[in-house]
Amino acid sequence: MESFLAEYGALAILVSALFQGELAVAMGGVLVHQDVVSAAGAVGAGSIAAFSSSQGFFFLGRSLRNYRFVRRMMARPSFARAKSLFERHPSGFVFGYHFIPGFQAISPLAIGTTAISGARFAVLNAIASFIWANSFTGLGYALGNSMEFVLGELRLIEHLLLGLAAILALFLIARCLAHRWTRARH
Questions:
Q1: In terms of CB atoms within 10 Å, which end of the chain has fewer, N or C?
Q2: What are phi and psi of 32, to 5 degrees?
Q3: Has residue 156 got a pLDDT over 70?
């Protein structure tokens, strides 16, 4: 497994981050801690995945805003909240939605229905994706470091499983807190 991850680690992070962003990128940080993947490879893969995903949803919102799929999305309360936040703080919102669980897909779709230029969104999204990938790679690295400090040296699979459990727990806690915060605001 270690040789597979050493050879395809960054690609595996990129592909899995398209589906499970925070979790995959944080696991990439654990792989960096284990010297299986380079930090640049893990951050680069996470950045590309976040950027590509957001750009895709942005262009869906931009080009398909008159189609039934997007109109159904626009009718959702989360879409209205995302669009309202964006209109009040456009640049800050592009940076922030990457860090709010549940907003990574709906937010760029909502932004795509606004008047922001594609070029401006792409620049803000690229910077935000890089910051986001650095943050979650760093979180995974720190968790790997903490696990090693507390438990001693671990094999790669043990590191990955414990890291996955810790990151999943943190993600669920963050998601619960974000859900409570959004419900309290409305």
A1: C
A2: -65, -45
A3: no
Instruction: Check pLDDT > 80 for residue 7.
Output: no
Mean pLDDT on 7-18: 73
Cα separation values, 147 from 44, 63, 158, Å? 24, 46, 10
What are the structure tokens assigned to 76, written together?
């959702």
Residue 2 banded pLDDT, cuts 50, 70, 90: very low
Q: Is-contact 38 32, C-beta < 8 A? A: yes
Q: Classify residue 61 as exposed, middle or buried by CB count within 10 Å of its CB (0-12, 13-18, 19+).
A: buried
**DSSP helix/strand/coil, 122:** helix
% pLDDT > 70, the chain = 80
DSSP state of 38: -
88 contacts: CB under 8 Å, gap ≥ 6: none
Give the span between the Cα atoms of 13 and 5, in whole angstroms. 9
109 and 61 Cβ atoms separated by less than 8 Å: yes
Q: Nearest-CA neighbor of 37 among 177, 156, 181, 176?
A: 156
